[in-house]
């Protein structure tokens, strides 16, 4: 696949016709390389067959309709002045920037805490719902301190072929995809290249911002959040379930939830479900 614009922004772009897992493949490449793999190395495919997401969930991409993208980020501890736990949120914010321009004003792209990018319409917003998932994020720390940043992006999956009613794609959600139906046609390759280049540009900008102006990076992440200000149900380890209102992000990126009893819950790990308000 010809990804000229993206390749101009990165030291190396590796395209795979098929991959069991781009995260696993990039991780192994970083481990076995004769010299350290360059910061910003990207490995991607439109046919991921056995990837794993957060909580060990399956993460596959149908050929020609979605992308599995993995990027190596070196010195994340220095570059993410807010702390490594913010990295998935920064990635989600960068992907939000890349995708929002494909939608009109009636649909908002944003981050569902902690690691998904959704698109929602006005009815979703009024009801406090996060909309439908366009992209999942999984960051994996390597032994040398680098991080493999994985994203799975639904681009051209038709509505009738989506895996669940909580998922969507740019095509199914009505984004401007220039009439493209497959990534392997010339217009499809150009679409993928443009979105990837926009994502890389936004991610680099945010990493720089997190290093030099962490408060500004934090504010941008909060601005792109679909979770803050909504009623949520938190599924904690040990099958504990707590309802409350998501209010803010803590210093480490954890979600601060105000409880009906007047207390506060700080969520660092667990699934967060947006409650569907009638």
UniProtKB/TrEMBL annotation:
Residues 1-211 form the BPL/LPL catalytic domain. It comes from the Bacteria. Keywords: ATP-binding, Biotin, Ligase, Nucleotide-binding. PANTHER family: BIOTIN PROTEIN LIGASE, BIOTIN--PROTEIN LIGASE. Its EC number is 6.3.4.15. Pfam families: BPL_C, BPL_LplA_LipB. GO terms for molecular function: biotin--[biotin carboxyl-carrier protein] ligase activity. This is biotin--[biotin carboxyl-carrier protein] ligase. It comes from Leucobacter chromiireducens subsp. solipictus.
């Amino acid at each position: 696949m010809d990804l000229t614009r993206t390749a101009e922004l990165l030291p190396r772009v590796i395209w795979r016709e098929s991959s069991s897992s781009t995260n696993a493949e990039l991780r192994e490449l970083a481990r076995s390389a004769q010299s350290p793999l360059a910061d910003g190395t990207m490995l991607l495919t439109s046919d991921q067959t056995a990837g794993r997401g957060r909580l060990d969930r399956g993460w596959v991409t149908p050929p020609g309709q979605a992308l599995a993208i993995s990027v190596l980020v070196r010195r994340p501890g220095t570059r993410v002045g807010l702390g490594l736990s913010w990295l998935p949120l920064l990635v989600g914010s960068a992907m939000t920037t890349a995708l929002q321009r494909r939608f009109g004003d009636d649909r908002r792209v944003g981050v569902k805490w902690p690691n998904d990018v959704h698109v929602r319409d006005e009815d979703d917003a009024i009801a406090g719902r996060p909309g439908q998932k366009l992209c999942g994020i999984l960051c994996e720390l390597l032994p040398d301190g680098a991080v493999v940043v994985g994203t799975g992006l639904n681009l051209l999956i038709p509505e009738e072929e989506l895996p669940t009613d909580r998922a969507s794609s740019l095509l199914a959600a009505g984004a401007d995809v220039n009439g493209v139906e497959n990534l392997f046609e010339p217009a499809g390759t150009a679409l993928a290249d443009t979105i990837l280049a926009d994502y890389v540009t936004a991610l680099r900008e945010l990493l720089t911002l997190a290093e030099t102006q962490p408060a500004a990076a934090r504010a941008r992440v909060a601005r792109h959040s679909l979770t803050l200000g909504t009623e949520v149900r938190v599924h904690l380890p040990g099958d504990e379930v707590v309802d409350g209102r998501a209010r803010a992000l803590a210093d480490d990126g954890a979600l601060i939830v105000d409880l009906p009893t007047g207390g506060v819950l700080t969520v660092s790990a667990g699934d967060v479900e947006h409650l569907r308000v009638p």
